[in-house]
Amino acid sequence: MADSSQGANGSVFISYSRKDKAFVQKLNSALDNAGVQAWVDWEGIELASDWMATITNAIQGTDAFLFVISPDSLKSKVCADELALGLKLNKKLIPILHREPDNGTAMHEKIAATNWVYLRQEDNFEETLPRLIQSINTDLEWVRQHTQLLGQALEWEKKNKDSSFLLNGTELGDAERWMAEASGKVNRQILPLQAEYISTSRKAADRRQRVVLAGVSLALVLSIVLSVFAWISRNEAKTAQAIALTSESIAVQRQYEAATAQAIAEQNERVAEEKKREAEEKTNLAKANFSAAQSQIYQSRAGELDTSTLLAIDSYQRVNSFQAENLIRVNSSRLAMPVRQMWQNGPVWKIEWTPDYQYFVTGNNRNPANKDSIGEACVWRASDGEKKYCVQHNGDVNDAIFTRDGMYLITASADGTVRFWEVASGKEVEENRLTFTGAVLDLDVTASLLAVARKDHFLTIYYLHKPLVKPVHLEQTSSVYTVRFSPNGALLAIALTNGDVKFWHVNNTFFFSGPKHPKSNYVVLAFSPDSNWLISGGGDSLARLTKRDGTVHYQVPHGDWVEDIAFGPDPSWYVTASDDNKVRVLDTTTGQEKLRLSHASFAQKVQVSPDGQWIASTGYDRVVRIWDAASGSQMLEFPLNANGSAISFNGDGTRIVAADEGGNISIWDISTLSARIGYIEFPEYVHEARLTPSGEYLIVNTDDYNVWRLPAKEIGQTHDGRTGEVIFRADSLTYDTVISPDSKWVAAVEYDSGNAGNNRGILVSLDGQTKFPLPHGGEVTGIAFDQDSTLVATSGINGLVSFWDVATGEKQFDLDNAEPVYSLVLGPLGELAAAGLHNKTLIWDMTAHEPLTELTQPGDIISIAVSQNGKWLATGSAEGTVLLW
Fold it and tell me: Is the pTM above the cut of 0.85?
């Protein structure tokens, strides 16, 4: 039993279930270090002892009653009896939530109605402890006097209310002031026995005073009778003396009352100051919580990541909380790294790369605010954003592209010209200039052809390597808005401003009809990488998938105009951006929506990285967002100065160039995004995934109770985990999955949903043909194989490390650690086993079944790892330390 003497910061009684003993040991140590004396029943009171008397004395002698909430404590009769006694004695109740109660568990109304202190495994123990100490210290002087008066009152009652045990003098006055201070205060409740004790003490004191006065009066009467014949002067002297004594008594009484009033006033002043301090702390905490809540809201809003971060910093500066710290950490991880910010005088709509991705070009429209501005196409160095040169037109530059050999830059302008420039020098090749009667709207190239979209109702085909051959001009029913060659160069798709889309067969030079977007004066186009499909979208709010023969396969409705379309390297899916603020990931074959990504305003541009891992989008919310293409999770975001108008990845997807309608161009480093070679989707939450030591298989356990086996060679080739084989189906959730060094066995811990304290291990052959239960006999905390794959070991809260024969599933022997084991490792240690306990790690000789040495470290040792050569051991503590041995 712990010493029940008073601590500097008060004393508490801790009621708990034996299954929470490890936590209570940690709590007791922390309270002791903080000057709080705790009474804890560590080993259980002997049955032969007077249990109720012992518990009553313990609860009676402490200032507060701490109830550790867990499924087991709520079901415990002993804990219920202790709680009832604490409430009966009117002790300050402080519930501590350590483990969440089971659904439907009955709970005492006082526990439910009192503010809880959260000390679960996922909560920050060190951060929460000061709030617990503060709760214990709140009103501590009044509580201590409550404890003292309760003890005196119980002793008086025990002695059959003997009057010699009653209060008197200043002790009685203090008690009456204590009782008066409780008036009208919810947290200050006086027991009837205490009130009776103080009231009886006052009555006894008054009775003693009356007896004294009566005795004095009787003596005076006798004195008058016996001294009837005494001298009158002597009587007068005695009367004067009695009056003086009475006056002195009244003066002393008034002095005592004044001192009492002063003490009460000082106490009230202290209480007022304490309440003021508490109010200020509550106000500060409320402001911190408000800032954190606002930060969380802004975190999910487009373009508000900076605001969210500032709010999180404000919250953290007010209260050093994990929530604020985590918000700052998450926000920081979502910010891309800026490389360079550049500028052109007008909106930028196009970004194109040289074939080697060393340079890129941006074409801009003239600045509408500057009548003298001209259109330009500027070439920039990709590594650092240095401007190589700019070429100029007399009108807007509507497109700028490079030839496939990287030798020429081709620009198209509203001034009716298409011009050719040497990439190396920026010098115009004037003899190749093309001049038309209207604006040139779009360009596209193959290795040998240039397609020109013209506003004057013509499509022009120019032969790049045959400059002497005259261009072919093909008249259309309306302006040609967009031109796109298929990746194999066999087809050219053109979109007209009346909404019609046509295909032109390159080799046979004939047109055939494609999809139509009626009432749309623009159409955007994208071919699939295998050239089999064309996606078109426009102002009719539809995206249409068309086969290469011109047959429309399906259409996908959107909530507003479709502004952009893009394929990645995988032809099985594509993305659209629309004015309904959405970016959609769609299945090519079925048109089924796989993912929906949200902006805060019109989504205008979308691109897929060259490796297909990332999707970039931007629009009127002035933010560029980077999404994971497999899950739809937002990975990064960065702000723009105006509406986003163009985005493009570099060749390896480590950088992205973005431009806006204000002419701002920026390069961002996104190389911090992890390199993913593929993904595999399972029907339920994936708990663990491990490769066998042989490298032959991937073992995955999921929340549908299955443990799956997939050939490692299929990683990166399949996306459906259900193509794997189910090794076995457990009766409940599994965790702590390990694989034997010879890659023939899988062992896991199975969670017992009916009895969390009785989990068990399971041993299964990798082919799923053999299965052995490993009934450890309590909550299992670790599982491991030895280096020869002949033994599998389980560790648990019951203090045992049990060893089982892999071939038969039979238990071989136990190592008894005499206290809970939190982690376990075997393997390269040879004949040694390491067990993580509280404040130490024990090293065992598995052959001799004897402990060899002890490695001390504060806290529960919840994680152990060993190097492959067995020379280094790492131990991790719940206190946040990692030591190498």
Answer: no
